[in-house]
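On to our target:
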Amino acid sequence: MALWDELVDTVLTNLAAKRHLFNTRLITLAPQPALPQTFAGPGPWDRATIEIYTDRASVQQWLTINGEACIQDDEADQKLILFSGNDYMCLSSHPAIRDAAVKAAQEHGMGPRGSPLACGYTTYHKLVEESLAQLMKKQDCILCSSGYSANTAVMSAVGSVSSLLAVGRKPTEDERIAIFSDASNHASIIDGIRHMERMQEGVAFVYKHRDMSHLESLLIFSMGSNFAPLPELVELREKYGFLLVVDDAHGTFVYGENGGGAPELFGCQDDIDIVVSSLSKAAGCMGGFIACSTRWKRLILSRGRSLTFSTALPVPVVASVYAAIHVSKMERWRRSVLLENTQYFASLTELDIYNPVISVVVGSEDTVLKAHRFIFHPNFLLPYHIDSFIFSSFIFIFKCSHLLRSGFLVEPIRPPVVPPNTCRLRITLSTAHSSDDIKRLVDALKPWLPVKQAR
């Protein structure tokens, strides 16, 4: 990727000449966090991440339609099993993560509050960036307030290359940066590309989801549940010399021997130029990051508007992220348990799934609402015209004669989040789910699962 390195170096020189080359300002906070305690197996704190207790008033508020309660008062108190969270590794309640946040808060409060380019960047932030860069096998890393801001910052920086090279003039059509984006990419990537296009810094081409032939023809996933074809993308990168940026928000800490995500799983970490990921999912904390080369870090810090104009993550959050990185690396059994749960769900449903994010596509909006109504308790009467905001979370209850009544919180996905007639039930598994939890959920979902073929 020598060509891209030369382009970015030229851009950095031009920015430096204008005194527009920014960098973080390091604030020293001591002492540095110690390595946290880890465990050889699950503890009670793991189960706490998926057991959700609702009070009577909350349930009534969720399920009251047009001023009329849709649940009997004596059944309002409910313990739910969460199947919609992103805390796949159940680290959010881990004692080491809790202790790290508490200790940092006691010693430093929230820490200095400001942009990383002003006063919000501390030795804690630097330590986490170094740890993430090592995990992702990159020269450097940038901590971001969210995965959303990380993606928009990368798109802004990449798109700015053409205008920064065309000093004193508008870049021609042939000089503009072309970005090729999967049709199912996350909204943050799409929004970053749209901003780039509005600034007339680049042009975008959208290829069919996971369709490498379509991508290659253009060259001469978000609510889904499959991998990007990284080996094929790497081959195309070698052939055409494009910059390969991968969003691994749902893969970091989940896959790979050390938790390096999908790139580590497929053995192609060295062949990906920039990795964008989240700290709000499998890390159980908050924020996002960009793992990249040092030259790209300098450019993104200087041209990534979502970084320049955002306050840095609070120190207790950063301390908890540092603990999560270590716990994830040491407690490798968590990835094994998560894989076993995924395989068990697949065996019960015969769905072709390989990761803990599972989409059960049921079709139209009417169909997905019928699916909800069918597996609700009979006292739940939900009309089709219910406001979409109310459907952001649901109680799934299934009654079975040989089991105690159990409740499941499952996320329904409808337009505009997904295209029309592709409404789905989005299920996420974690290390804390038991085989019994999964079996009972599958029993409740049977009317909308593919019919098993006779063997």
